[in-house]
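Bench notes, afternoon.
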Amino acid sequence: MSVPGAAIVRPLPGDGLVGRDGGLSLACALPGRSDTAAVDGLLTALAEAAAAGESGHGLVSRTIRVLAGASGEECPSACAVAGPAPDGAVAVLVAGAAEARVLTADGREITITGPSRDGWTERLISGPVARLDLRLPGAGEVDPRLRLTSGVVRAGGLRQITQSPRKPASPAASSSPSSSRPSAPARAPAPSPSPSPSDAGGRAGSPAQQNFVVPLPATRAEQLPTPPKPSTSSAPSKPRGAPEPQHVLGVNCKNHHFNDPRARYCAVCGISMMQATLAPFMAPRPPLGVLLVDDGQTVPLTTDVLIGRDPRQAPGIAERTAIPMRLTDDEGSISRRHTLIQLDGWKVRLVDLGSVNGTAIKTSGAPDFERIAPETSVPLAPGTAVRIGVQRTFRFESNREA
Protein backbone atom coordinates (compact mmCIF):
# COMPACT_ATOMS: atom_id res chain seq x y z
CA MET A 1 0.00 0.00 0.00
CA SER A 2 1.27 3.43 -0.78
CA VAL A 3 1.31 4.63 2.78
CA PRO A 4 4.36 5.61 4.82
CA GLY A 5 6.07 2.70 6.47
CA ALA A 6 6.87 -0.85 5.46
CA ALA A 7 4.17 -3.42 4.71
CA ILE A 8 4.37 -6.95 6.11
CA VAL A 9 2.32 -9.59 4.30
CA ARG A 10 1.51 -12.91 5.92
CA PRO A 11 -0.38 -15.76 4.20
CA LEU A 12 -3.37 -17.24 6.01
CA PRO A 13 -3.72 -21.02 6.29
CA GLY A 14 -6.20 -22.47 3.80
CA ASP A 15 -6.75 -24.12 0.46
CA GLY A 16 -6.48 -21.52 -2.27
CA LEU A 17 -4.01 -19.44 -4.23
CA VAL A 18 -2.45 -16.23 -2.91
CA GLY A 19 -0.27 -13.97 -5.03
CA ARG A 20 1.81 -10.93 -4.18
CA ASP A 21 3.72 -8.85 -6.73
CA GLY A 22 4.89 -5.23 -6.67
CA GLY A 23 2.61 -4.18 -3.81
CA LEU A 24 -0.43 -5.80 -5.47
CA SER A 25 -2.28 -8.71 -3.87
CA LEU A 26 -4.56 -11.52 -5.08
CA ALA A 27 -6.44 -14.31 -3.31
CA CYS A 28 -8.34 -16.82 -5.41
CA ALA A 29 -9.94 -20.23 -5.02
CA LEU A 30 -8.09 -23.17 -6.55
CA PRO A 31 -9.06 -23.74 -10.18
CA GLY A 32 -11.44 -26.53 -11.09
CA ARG A 33 -12.12 -28.09 -14.45
CA SER A 34 -14.35 -25.24 -15.61
CA ASP A 35 -12.60 -22.13 -14.24
CA THR A 36 -8.94 -22.93 -14.95
CA ALA A 37 -8.69 -20.33 -17.71
CA ALA A 38 -10.18 -17.60 -15.51
CA VAL A 39 -7.83 -18.35 -12.59
CA ASP A 40 -4.83 -18.36 -14.93
CA GLY A 41 -6.08 -15.06 -16.33
CA LEU A 42 -6.23 -13.55 -12.83
CA LEU A 43 -2.64 -14.61 -12.08
CA THR A 44 -1.54 -13.16 -15.41
CA ALA A 45 -3.38 -9.91 -14.63
CA LEU A 46 -1.51 -9.65 -11.32
CA ALA A 47 1.88 -10.23 -12.97
CA GLU A 48 1.23 -7.84 -15.87
CA ALA A 49 -0.11 -5.07 -13.62
CA ALA A 50 2.97 -5.33 -11.39
CA ALA A 51 5.33 -5.42 -14.38
CA ALA A 52 3.69 -2.25 -15.75
CA GLY A 53 4.07 -0.49 -12.40
CA GLU A 54 0.31 -0.03 -12.05
CA SER A 55 -1.55 0.86 -8.88
CA GLY A 56 -4.50 -0.97 -7.39
CA HIS A 57 -6.81 0.70 -9.91
CA GLY A 58 -4.91 -0.97 -12.74
CA LEU A 59 -5.15 -4.39 -11.09
CA VAL A 60 -8.89 -3.93 -10.45
CA SER A 61 -9.43 -2.97 -14.10
CA ARG A 62 -7.53 -6.02 -15.34
CA THR A 63 -9.42 -8.27 -12.93
CA ILE A 64 -12.74 -6.93 -14.20
CA ARG A 65 -11.73 -7.79 -17.75
CA VAL A 66 -10.98 -11.38 -16.73
CA LEU A 67 -14.21 -11.81 -14.76
CA ALA A 68 -16.30 -10.11 -17.43
CA GLY A 69 -14.94 -12.54 -20.02
CA ALA A 70 -16.04 -15.53 -17.94
CA SER A 71 -19.60 -16.53 -17.21
CA GLY A 72 -21.46 -19.06 -15.11
CA GLU A 73 -19.30 -21.95 -14.02
CA GLU A 74 -16.23 -20.40 -15.67
CA CYS A 75 -15.96 -17.77 -12.90
CA PRO A 76 -13.86 -18.63 -9.83
CA SER A 77 -15.95 -19.39 -6.75
CA ALA A 78 -14.00 -16.80 -4.73
CA CYS A 79 -11.63 -14.01 -5.69
CA ALA A 80 -10.30 -10.80 -4.10
CA VAL A 81 -7.64 -8.34 -5.24
CA ALA A 82 -6.23 -5.16 -3.68
CA GLY A 83 -3.57 -2.59 -4.34
CA PRO A 84 -2.45 0.93 -3.41
CA ALA A 85 -4.20 4.06 -4.65
CA PRO A 86 -3.32 7.77 -4.31
CA ASP A 87 -3.26 9.45 -0.89
CA GLY A 88 -2.76 6.16 0.95
CA ALA A 89 -6.08 4.73 -0.21
CA VAL A 90 -6.57 1.10 -1.25
CA ALA A 91 -8.53 -0.16 -4.26
CA VAL A 92 -10.31 -3.47 -3.55
CA LEU A 93 -12.39 -5.88 -5.64
CA VAL A 94 -14.21 -8.89 -4.17
CA ALA A 95 -16.09 -11.58 -6.10
CA GLY A 96 -17.87 -14.77 -5.16
CA ALA A 97 -17.48 -16.09 -1.62
CA ALA A 98 -14.31 -14.12 -0.84
CA GLU A 99 -14.21 -11.11 1.45
CA ALA A 100 -11.92 -8.24 2.34
CA ARG A 101 -11.53 -6.79 5.84
CA VAL A 102 -9.94 -3.37 6.25
CA LEU A 103 -8.83 -1.57 9.38
CA THR A 104 -7.98 2.09 8.77
CA ALA A 105 -5.50 4.09 10.80
CA ASP A 106 -8.36 6.04 12.39
CA GLY A 107 -10.03 2.87 13.66
CA ARG A 108 -12.69 2.26 10.99
CA GLU A 109 -13.42 -1.43 10.37
CA ILE A 110 -14.79 -2.19 6.90
CA THR A 111 -15.87 -5.59 5.55
CA ILE A 112 -16.39 -6.01 1.81
CA THR A 113 -18.14 -9.06 0.38
CA GLY A 114 -19.09 -10.11 -3.12
CA PRO A 115 -22.65 -9.60 -4.37
CA SER A 116 -25.20 -12.35 -3.90
CA ARG A 117 -25.76 -12.47 -7.65
CA ASP A 118 -23.16 -12.76 -10.40
CA GLY A 119 -20.66 -9.93 -10.45
CA TRP A 120 -18.27 -8.29 -8.05
CA THR A 121 -17.95 -5.47 -5.53
CA GLU A 122 -15.43 -2.68 -5.99
CA ARG A 123 -14.43 -0.26 -3.25
CA LEU A 124 -11.93 2.55 -2.79
CA ILE A 125 -11.01 2.76 0.89
CA SER A 126 -9.56 6.09 1.99
CA GLY A 127 -6.29 5.78 3.82
CA PRO A 128 -4.11 5.44 5.55
CA VAL A 129 -4.84 1.74 6.04
CA ALA A 130 -3.34 -0.11 8.98
CA ARG A 131 -4.40 -3.66 8.09
CA LEU A 132 -5.91 -5.43 5.09
CA ASP A 133 -7.18 -9.02 4.97
CA LEU A 134 -8.14 -10.86 1.78
CA ARG A 135 -9.91 -14.05 2.87
CA LEU A 136 -11.18 -17.10 1.03
CA PRO A 137 -13.75 -19.49 2.54
CA GLY A 138 -12.19 -21.59 5.30
CA ALA A 139 -9.19 -19.30 5.82
CA GLY A 140 -7.44 -19.82 9.15
CA GLU A 141 -5.86 -17.37 11.55
CA VAL A 142 -2.61 -15.61 10.75
CA ASP A 143 0.69 -17.17 11.82
CA PRO A 144 3.12 -14.40 12.85
CA ARG A 145 6.08 -16.56 11.78
CA LEU A 146 5.02 -16.56 8.13
CA ARG A 147 5.82 -13.84 5.62
CA LEU A 148 5.17 -13.44 1.90
CA THR A 149 7.30 -10.99 -0.09
CA SER A 150 6.34 -11.96 -3.65
CA GLY A 151 5.19 -14.95 -5.67
CA VAL A 152 2.20 -17.30 -5.62
CA VAL A 153 1.63 -19.74 -2.74
CA ARG A 154 -1.03 -22.17 -1.55
CA ALA A 155 -3.00 -20.34 1.17
CA GLY A 156 -6.46 -19.26 2.25
CA GLY A 157 -5.83 -15.55 2.04
CA LEU A 158 -3.39 -12.94 3.28
CA ARG A 159 -3.01 -10.23 5.89
CA GLN A 160 -1.12 -7.04 5.09
CA ILE A 161 0.01 -4.87 7.98
CA THR A 162 1.44 -1.42 7.43
CA GLN A 163 3.96 -0.44 10.05
CA SER A 164 4.03 3.15 11.26
CA PRO A 165 7.04 4.98 9.88
CA ARG A 166 9.83 5.81 12.26
CA LYS A 167 10.37 9.48 12.80
CA PRO A 168 13.86 10.61 11.71
CA ALA A 169 16.15 11.32 14.61
CA SER A 170 16.59 15.02 15.12
CA PRO A 171 20.18 16.23 15.32
CA ALA A 172 21.20 16.27 18.97
CA ALA A 173 22.34 19.60 20.28
CA SER A 174 26.05 19.59 21.22
CA SER A 175 26.39 19.65 24.93
CA SER A 176 30.07 19.36 25.69
CA PRO A 177 31.29 20.26 29.18
CA SER A 178 31.98 23.90 29.72
CA SER A 179 35.53 24.96 29.09
CA SER A 180 37.39 28.14 29.53
CA ARG A 181 38.88 27.72 26.08
CA PRO A 182 36.92 29.82 23.59
CA SER A 183 35.25 27.84 20.92
CA ALA A 184 36.20 28.34 17.30
CA PRO A 185 33.78 30.45 15.34
CA ALA A 186 31.30 28.36 13.42
CA ARG A 187 31.67 28.39 9.68
CA ALA A 188 28.75 30.10 8.02
CA PRO A 189 26.71 27.62 5.96
CA ALA A 190 26.67 28.08 2.21
CA PRO A 191 23.56 29.89 1.07
CA SER A 192 20.97 27.52 -0.31
CA PRO A 193 19.11 28.36 -3.51
CA SER A 194 15.69 29.86 -3.08
CA PRO A 195 12.90 27.37 -3.76
CA SER A 196 11.25 27.72 -7.10
CA PRO A 197 7.52 28.46 -7.23
CA SER A 198 6.90 24.87 -8.31
CA ASP A 199 8.87 23.56 -5.33
CA ALA A 200 6.90 25.75 -2.97
CA GLY A 201 3.68 24.56 -4.50
CA GLY A 202 4.79 20.96 -4.13
CA ARG A 203 5.19 21.43 -0.39
CA ALA A 204 1.71 22.81 0.08
CA GLY A 205 -0.59 20.43 1.88
CA SER A 206 -3.70 19.18 0.19
CA PRO A 207 -7.05 18.64 1.88
CA ALA A 208 -8.02 15.11 2.75
CA GLN A 209 -9.60 13.34 -0.18
CA GLN A 210 -13.19 12.29 0.36
CA ASN A 211 -13.65 8.60 -0.28
CA PHE A 212 -16.43 8.20 -2.82
CA VAL A 213 -16.80 4.48 -3.39
CA VAL A 214 -16.41 4.07 -7.10
CA PRO A 215 -15.25 0.49 -8.45
CA LEU A 216 -12.58 2.70 -10.19
CA PRO A 217 -11.05 6.25 -10.13
CA ALA A 218 -12.20 9.13 -12.24
CA THR A 219 -9.29 8.75 -14.66
CA ARG A 220 -8.35 6.60 -17.60
CA ALA A 221 -7.69 2.98 -16.75
CA GLU A 222 -3.95 2.47 -16.34
CA GLN A 223 -2.00 0.56 -19.01
CA LEU A 224 -4.67 -1.99 -19.78
CA PRO A 225 -4.05 -4.72 -22.34
CA THR A 226 -4.28 -3.58 -25.95
CA PRO A 227 -7.89 -2.36 -26.38
CA PRO A 228 -9.92 -3.45 -29.39
CA LYS A 229 -10.33 0.10 -30.78
CA PRO A 230 -8.15 2.51 -28.82
CA SER A 231 -8.64 5.48 -31.10
CA THR A 232 -12.38 5.45 -31.62
CA SER A 233 -13.66 6.94 -28.39
CA SER A 234 -12.77 9.60 -25.93
CA ALA A 235 -13.76 10.10 -22.33
CA PRO A 236 -15.93 13.09 -21.55
CA SER A 237 -13.92 16.24 -21.27
CA LYS A 238 -14.86 19.00 -18.88
CA PRO A 239 -14.66 22.22 -20.90
CA ARG A 240 -14.76 25.66 -19.40
CA GLY A 241 -18.19 26.25 -17.98
CA ALA A 242 -18.99 22.52 -17.62
CA PRO A 243 -22.04 21.69 -15.49
CA GLU A 244 -21.51 21.88 -11.76
CA PRO A 245 -22.58 18.89 -9.62
CA GLN A 246 -26.30 18.99 -8.90
CA HIS A 247 -27.41 19.62 -5.32
CA VAL A 248 -29.64 16.84 -4.03
CA LEU A 249 -31.35 15.98 -0.77
CA GLY A 250 -29.32 13.49 1.21
CA VAL A 251 -28.19 12.39 4.65
CA ASN A 252 -24.88 11.80 6.37
CA CYS A 253 -23.90 8.55 8.03
CA LYS A 254 -22.21 8.86 11.41
CA ASN A 255 -18.87 9.11 9.60
CA HIS A 256 -20.16 12.13 7.64
CA HIS A 257 -20.45 10.44 4.24
CA PHE A 258 -23.26 11.90 2.08
CA ASN A 259 -25.82 9.27 0.99
CA ASP A 260 -29.19 8.71 -0.61
CA PRO A 261 -31.82 9.12 2.16
CA ARG A 262 -33.27 5.71 1.20
CA ALA A 263 -29.94 3.87 1.51
CA ARG A 264 -29.80 1.11 4.09
CA TYR A 265 -26.01 1.17 4.30
CA CYS A 266 -23.44 3.91 3.72
CA ALA A 267 -22.01 3.65 0.21
CA VAL A 268 -18.59 4.76 1.46
CA CYS A 269 -17.87 3.00 4.75
CA GLY A 270 -20.67 0.39 4.66
CA ILE A 271 -22.06 1.25 8.09
CA SER A 272 -25.76 0.59 8.68
CA MET A 273 -28.02 3.61 8.46
CA MET A 274 -31.18 1.83 9.58
CA GLN A 275 -30.88 2.72 13.28
CA ALA A 276 -29.41 6.20 12.89
CA THR A 277 -31.33 9.44 13.35
CA LEU A 278 -30.89 11.15 9.98
CA ALA A 279 -31.38 14.82 9.15
CA PRO A 280 -31.77 15.38 5.38
CA PHE A 281 -30.07 18.40 3.83
CA MET A 282 -29.10 19.67 0.37
CA ALA A 283 -25.51 19.16 -0.80
CA PRO A 284 -23.56 18.47 -4.03
CA ARG A 285 -24.27 14.96 -5.28
CA PRO A 286 -21.26 12.60 -5.22
CA PRO A 287 -20.46 10.44 -8.28
CA LEU A 288 -23.16 7.80 -8.77
CA GLY A 289 -20.83 5.26 -10.37
CA VAL A 290 -18.70 4.77 -13.45
CA LEU A 291 -19.00 3.66 -17.06
CA LEU A 292 -16.43 0.99 -17.94
CA VAL A 293 -15.96 1.37 -21.71
CA ASP A 294 -14.87 -1.55 -23.91
CA ASP A 295 -11.57 0.18 -24.79
CA GLY A 296 -10.49 0.39 -21.14
CA GLN A 297 -11.67 3.87 -20.22
CA THR A 298 -13.37 4.66 -16.94
CA VAL A 299 -15.90 7.50 -17.03
CA PRO A 300 -17.20 8.86 -13.69
CA LEU A 301 -20.87 9.80 -13.48
CA THR A 302 -20.89 13.26 -11.93
CA THR A 303 -23.43 14.78 -14.35
CA ASP A 304 -25.42 13.80 -17.45
CA VAL A 305 -23.30 12.25 -20.24
CA LEU A 306 -24.28 12.60 -23.91
CA ILE A 307 -22.83 9.78 -26.02
CA GLY A 308 -22.52 9.84 -29.78
CA ARG A 309 -20.34 10.12 -32.86
CA ASP A 310 -20.14 13.93 -32.56
CA PRO A 311 -22.03 15.05 -29.43
CA ARG A 312 -20.13 18.29 -28.82
CA GLN A 313 -22.51 20.47 -30.82
CA ALA A 314 -25.67 19.06 -29.24
CA PRO A 315 -28.00 21.49 -27.43
CA GLY A 316 -27.44 19.85 -24.04
CA ILE A 317 -23.71 20.48 -24.28
CA ALA A 318 -24.15 24.09 -25.36
CA GLU A 319 -26.63 24.63 -22.51
CA ARG A 320 -24.16 23.06 -20.08
CA THR A 321 -26.59 20.43 -18.83
CA ALA A 322 -24.40 17.49 -19.91
CA ILE A 323 -20.84 16.64 -20.93
CA PRO A 324 -19.97 14.94 -24.24
CA MET A 325 -18.52 11.46 -24.70
CA ARG A 326 -17.42 10.70 -28.25
CA LEU A 327 -17.86 7.09 -29.33
CA THR A 328 -17.40 5.75 -32.88
CA ASP A 329 -17.01 2.46 -34.72
CA ASP A 330 -15.83 1.25 -38.12
CA GLU A 331 -19.39 0.42 -39.21
CA GLY A 332 -20.63 3.98 -38.72
CA SER A 333 -23.53 2.64 -36.68
CA ILE A 334 -23.39 5.31 -33.97
CA SER A 335 -25.46 8.44 -34.43
CA ARG A 336 -24.17 11.95 -33.79
CA ARG A 337 -26.43 12.14 -30.72
CA HIS A 338 -27.06 8.51 -29.79
CA THR A 339 -27.66 7.95 -26.07
CA LEU A 340 -28.02 10.03 -22.91
CA ILE A 341 -26.94 8.88 -19.46
CA GLN A 342 -29.25 10.90 -17.23
CA LEU A 343 -28.72 11.46 -13.50
CA ASP A 344 -32.07 11.96 -11.81
CA GLY A 345 -31.51 12.73 -8.15
CA TRP A 346 -29.78 9.57 -6.89
CA LYS A 347 -30.92 7.46 -9.85
CA VAL A 348 -29.13 6.72 -13.15
CA ARG A 349 -31.28 6.45 -16.29
CA LEU A 350 -30.60 5.58 -19.92
CA VAL A 351 -32.33 7.27 -22.87
CA ASP A 352 -31.92 6.34 -26.53
CA LEU A 353 -32.18 9.61 -28.48
CA GLY A 354 -33.94 8.13 -31.50
CA SER A 355 -30.76 6.62 -32.98
CA VAL A 356 -30.94 4.59 -36.19
CA ASN A 357 -29.19 1.49 -34.86
CA GLY A 358 -30.55 1.72 -31.33
CA THR A 359 -29.36 1.18 -27.79
CA ALA A 360 -29.56 -2.21 -26.08
CA ILE A 361 -29.02 -3.34 -22.49
CA LYS A 362 -28.07 -6.62 -20.87
CA THR A 363 -28.77 -6.91 -17.18
CA SER A 364 -26.76 -9.17 -14.92
CA GLY A 365 -27.69 -12.78 -15.63
CA ALA A 366 -29.62 -11.99 -18.84
CA PRO A 367 -28.76 -14.22 -21.84
CA ASP A 368 -28.49 -11.43 -24.40
CA PHE A 369 -28.90 -7.73 -25.12
CA GLU A 370 -32.40 -6.30 -25.44
CA ARG A 371 -33.03 -3.11 -27.39
CA ILE A 372 -34.77 -0.31 -25.50
CA ALA A 373 -37.52 1.89 -26.88
CA PRO A 374 -36.36 5.24 -28.28
CA GLU A 375 -36.97 8.45 -26.35
CA THR A 376 -37.86 6.43 -23.24
CA SER A 377 -36.09 6.75 -19.91
CA VAL A 378 -34.94 3.35 -18.62
CA PRO A 379 -33.49 2.83 -15.09
CA LEU A 380 -29.89 1.63 -15.21
CA ALA A 381 -29.00 -0.88 -12.51
CA PRO A 382 -25.39 -1.53 -11.43
CA GLY A 383 -23.82 -4.34 -13.45
CA THR A 384 -25.87 -3.58 -16.59
CA ALA A 385 -24.02 -3.72 -19.92
CA VAL A 386 -25.07 -1.25 -22.63
CA ARG A 387 -24.53 -1.68 -26.38
CA ILE A 388 -24.36 1.45 -28.53
CA GLY A 389 -25.07 0.82 -32.21
CA VAL A 390 -23.76 -2.46 -33.60
CA GLN A 391 -20.85 -3.36 -31.35
CA ARG A 392 -19.54 -0.69 -28.95
CA THR A 393 -20.32 -1.45 -25.30
CA PHE A 394 -19.82 -0.17 -21.78
CA ARG A 395 -20.92 -1.37 -18.35
CA PHE A 396 -22.39 0.70 -15.53
CA GLU A 397 -20.97 -0.10 -12.10
CA SER A 398 -21.79 1.47 -8.77
CA ASN A 399 -21.69 0.56 -5.10
CA ARG A 400 -24.86 2.57 -4.51
CA GLU A 401 -28.23 0.87 -4.41
CA ALA A 402 -30.18 0.99 -7.64
